[in-house]
Design goal:
homodimer; DNA-binding; elongated; 12 helices; alpha/beta; Rossmann fold; 339 residues; 42% helix
Chain lengths: 339, 339
Amino acid sequence: MIIVSSKDVAKLAGCSQSTVSRVLNRPETVHPDKREKVLQAIEALQYKPNIAARSLVAKRTNTIALISGTLRNDYFAESTDRIVEYASKHGYRTMVYFESEGSLGDILAQIKSYKVDGILISCMKLDDPHYEAFAASGIPCIWFNRRHRRGGHYVSMDNVLAAKMLTRHLLDLGHRRIAYLSGPLDISTLYERWTGFEAVMREASVPVRESYVHILEPNDQAVQKLTWKLMHQPEPPTAIVCGNDELAIASMDALLSMGLRIPADVSIAGFDDIRMSGHQAIQLTSVGQHRFDMGEVAAEHLMMLIEAKDGQEQPSIQFLCKPELFVRRSTGVARTEKN
Amino acid sequence: MIIVSSKDVAKLAGCSQSTVSRVLNRPETVHPDKREKVLQAIEALQYKPNIAARSLVAKRTNTIALISGTLRNDYFAESTDRIVEYASKHGYRTMVYFESEGSLGDILAQIKSYKVDGILISCMKLDDPHYEAFAASGIPCIWFNRRHRRGGHYVSMDNVLAAKMLTRHLLDLGHRRIAYLSGPLDISTLYERWTGFEAVMREASVPVRESYVHILEPNDQAVQKLTWKLMHQPEPPTAIVCGNDELAIASMDALLSMGLRIPADVSIAGFDDIRMSGHQAIQLTSVGQHRFDMGEVAAEHLMMLIEAKDGQEQPSIQFLCKPELFVRRSTGVARTEKN
DNA sequence: CTGAAAGCGCTTACAG
DNA sequence: CTGAAAGCGCTTACAG
């Protein structure tokens, strides 16, 4: 592939390389006639400035890194979509990394090599030891969705409150045998949700039975298996709270396969209010935020951090937005006890 | 942010910059003792080579561009996930672009600036005028999912056949009043599916009524509105074929809102066999490919093209894989005529 | 308003 | 096995 450089443009336009560069960066500083000639040469040669060379000297790449949970979880698909679009609209490219690609340490090493201007992370564990490395990298970072215990800049939801709202909703419907299905609790969102659930259950003096609680790896097989196990005990739960909608929808799949009716036989609910939860065939009760995309808000503030970088001191960014409960058909009055 | 360069490493290790570079690129060519010292210095300084500088001289970036349809369509979420992971595993970074970000011309301009090693495109229109520019860019390109009329390297499904299989399935169930809901027909997949549908209907001498066919912009509102319109005519269809599962699931949402039962009142089916289609609450009949991810196959071959680049002539990559029909509960015997 | 020159951080012949 | 030097394509003071 032949690379057209600014030197080639300069030759054709009959000027110096510096002038070509100026036309690109501060066109008002070059004489209109000359500018026109350069523009024509650029067009004629289909010249595109080499970003690598530019960022080498400019010390900025106009690129941000997004480290996201898997797109198989709709929550991350939605936020990734929004972030990439938002960044693009504001002149930034997004390099997307998924947690499945390797340890955060390896990913950070790569990111550092690319000299991105900023980092968005939605999938760091609550006590992930790599936190320090990110914080010390000198690259502006914002955590969204999942937080780290140390704090830092973050945009998240009040997940404790969210879980309390959801749990009270189920108690209000008369449920007492409530099960809890969750992914690993070393993740802030899942941990906080569990905490909120437990707190309300304790307040209400409703015991949380051990056989009703399952912490699992979030894949369809595990959900299938544990849902089955949950419902095949002597006294099965009348309601299931899932750590997020993705899990809830998978569990719902299992419940329906078993011939159970929702909510007649068992109620189910989740968190995040992903798009599918509102579908008529799903109608999953969920708690999330309406009209507030954490990813986009995080991107917006990341750009502020990047641009204010050399200026005055950095503001501290800590958003904990209020959740909303969306009651749908998947939760109903507790089935009359009759086991 | 302080940038540690290979010069700093050289100073600490007491050697030249070239040696540092050699340790990184061809460690076997430097004396073990010296190599060890350099490695220690790299570790001590937390040195990460600057990718921009490297690609400037190496004339390759180990980066591919993926231009994808929106992640709001699960098909694209699934393929993006796979591609990024596959590329990562093989030493390539992926820059993700979405068609919504601007014209393909603008996106190509950006991509050229980044000097990516290869391009994967899943969202080009059948007669998109930018095709030439991509083909002439000198950058290896593979089209997957949607094809361009000119061909080029592509990985796709036999969509005509897919539509024929699906249509015959509905005819076999006794349906004669079959509606067709599709996104724009300037997209190969949608165009070919429509073609296959029409061909089978003609063969079977079943007229395709004009009021049963709607071409729409694929957003929830449009689907909602047209589904409503479809079912509120004097003789509503007994089955609806949708151009893809995303549309079908949205239309299903509308049907259920209207109080219709699937498939008792109306059957519905789609294409792509996305993950959600298999969910017990959805059970959408669909035609797609099992165990064959076009995105991943495309990525695999793109890397072959990139690596064979300077070698012998390029092979022509043209995959048209066979579809499979997944019959689920959303299609059933045609309702007894009684309008 | 414009050009020559230095330099960003790297790799790769070229000598030795 | 190793270092000095040239060069990748750009931007940005510095003179004029």
